[in-house]
Design brief:
Elements: H1 3-39, E1 46-54, E2 62-71, E3 82-87, E4 92-94, E5 101-107, E6 110-115, E7 127-135, E8 145-151, E9 159-160, E10 163-167
Parallel strand pairs: 1-10
Antiparallel strand pairs: 1-2, 2-7, 3-6, 3-8, 4-7, 5-6, 8-9
Length: 171
């Protein structure tokens, strides 16, 4: 074998080696992405419940409500990495700000519910509840609606929470 043909053989072998490594890297990252996707909670198994506890809370024109998030899936809702958005026409706040969730007004009637460092996630078959204060809930127009989850690593993709229960106040 001449030196010229040996050089061509080495260059050809190096090219195939790099191509092989590239294919392995693509397969590795694709399988990692698929594993992360399959490890994520199925949002269709997430349920939201909003129930009025007292529609004249502290003898004021405000309501105390119980907000519950139930994980009916097989995977944990993680302690971080997500936000739930919803619409409600009045201001809303948490009764106890140390219980693991925080509510922020985004714009107009849009609010964001997100976990704090105190939140530990929701295991399959378990629920997490907190109390919220809002203006009195008189009719359907006053109730929260349009709940959807956004994963922090997919900020442009919304997952609608379809399993929603709103318990109307006794008037």
């Amino acid at each position: 074998m001449t030196q010229k043909s040996r050089h061509r053989f080495t260059a050809f072998t190096t090219l195939y080696f790099h191509f092989f490594v590239l294919i392995l890297l693509i397969l590795f990252f694709q399988s990692t992405a698929m594993a992360q996707k399959s490890a994520a909670l199925n949002v269709e198994k997430l349920a939201v419940s909003f129930s009025i506890i007292d529609n004249n809370y502290q003898n004021k024109n405000q309501a105390l409500a119980k907000f519950s998030l139930t994980n009916n899936g097989k995977k944990i809702l993680p302690a971080t990495g997500w936000k739930i958005y919803f619409n409600i026409k009045s201001m809303i706040s948490l009764e106890n700000t140390a219980d693991g969730l925080v509510i922020k007004k985004q714009t107009g009637n849009l609010f964001e519910l997100s976990p704090t460092a105190a939140f530990t996630g929701i295991k399959p078959g378990r629920s997490y509840s907190t109390q919220m204060i809002t203006d009195r809930i008189i009719n359907k127009n006053d109730q929260p609606e349009g709940f959807y989850l956004v994963w922090n690593n997919e900020p442009t993709k919304e997952y609608t929470i379809k399993n929603l229960t709103i318990n109307k106040p006794a008037l």
